[in-house]
Amino acid sequence: MREEQLYEAMERHTEHLLRLAYFYVQSWEAAEDIVQESFIALYEKAAQYKGEASVKNYVRKIVINRCHDHLRKKKRRQLFLPFRYVKSAEQEVVLHTEKTTLLEALMRLDDKYREAIILYYFEELSTVQIAGLLGLNESTVRSRLKRARDELRGYLDDPQWEVFLNE
Amino acid sequence: MNEFKKRLEDQTPISPAQRQRIKQGVLQKKKNKRNVRLMPLAASFLFGIFVFAGSFMLLTKEEPSSLDTGISSSVTDEREKVASYLETGEERYLAGISPEMVLKTYLFTKEPDGSTAPVVNALALEEFAIQWPYDLTYHEQKFEEMLQHVTASIDYNHARMHIKGWDIPFITVEFQKVNDVWKISKIE
Predict the structure, then answer these.
(1) Fewer CB within 10 A of the end CB, N or C, for chain B?
(2) Residues B133-173 pLDDT 10s
(3) Helix or strand holding residue B15 (H, E)
(4) Taking CB atoms and an 8 Å limit, are A18 and B22 in contact across chains?
């Protein structure tokens, strides 16, 4: 890949990939790092890139893999933390009754359910494509999507929930 | 664009500063990686000079030199010092010595036949030192595969190592991390 192509890819895809990474890792700082590293990887692995997929798909795959790595490391670090923050029953009730924005609701989901929603609704991939991307059965993807939607339904008020009805 | 995507984008505005940071970060990292790629060339060049100088010194001096181990004398001295501390168990000298340093010490110590430890072991340890304390399972496995005489179990503030040294039949060293400083808590 020539430098101009890298710059063009950055120009076209930075915003979208930054959001994608943010939805995964829930930190703008970490998302910026991941996107930077992914563009570097795209540039360096240009020889492996066969052009079968678009640059966007290729770099998206890199971003998703790096987000998975980040989340794995984060979980491992949490194992060593002496104290873990646990929400009180009262806080849980508030969280489950208070209606929130779509973003806040999305961020409450477990990683794997959030991922299913992001890839299906934000990346606009089919369940077959998601299954291929993540190495899962399509039925698993469908089941995750259903659970994620059920959980989101509890967090969102009717106007917010309509975005799912319209799809 | 679907409504879901539109709403999420509205709720996550990206500032020009963020875009700029990413662009600059990519340029900087690309530059750094290019420099790293050039380092082996520079290292080879320096190694060549080092070998040449070493050969020249060996030809002109009859007495043995630390250069025949391929390690500079100051580094050798430092490692020998740590090795002797470990042998004598003088814990007061050992505060602040990291587990990596101890392992390196043993790997660079001469074997009974006078040869030095294989370079590949040293490289594995360099990698260990850089990545540490992450991916411990991987590195423990690497110890088993490549070193055989060292086993280690390490978490964030405690480490235990069984080292079969060349000068010492078998020792167990335990480390405790206190205020970000590694201290040897036990030697058996």
Answers:
(1) N
(2) 333 333 343 333 333 345 555 566 666 666 554 444 455 66
(3) none
(4) yes
Q: What is the dihedral of CA A125, A126, A127, A129, to 10 degrees?
A: -70
**A163 → closest Cβ in B4, B21, B22:** B4
Nearest to A3 by CA among B18, B37, B21, B23: B23
Chain A residues touching residue B23 (CB < 8 angstroms): 10, 14
Rounded distance, CA A34 to CA A15, Å? Answer: 13
ipTM metric: 0.80
Cα first-last separation, chain B: 67
C-beta of residue B48 within 8 angstroms of C-beta of residue A58: no
Reported pTM: 0.54
At residue B168, φ and ψ (nearest 5 deg) are -115, 130
Interface check for B155 against chain A (CB to CB < 8 A): the answer is: yes
CB contact under 8 A, B8 and A15: no
Strands, sheet with B150-154, edge to edge from the N-terminal-most edge strand: B150-154, B158-163, B171-178, B181-187
Phi/psi of residue B154, nearest 5 degrees: -135, 135
- Spell out where chain B has E strands: 150-154, 158-163, 171-178, 181-187
| B182: its two tokens | 């590694």
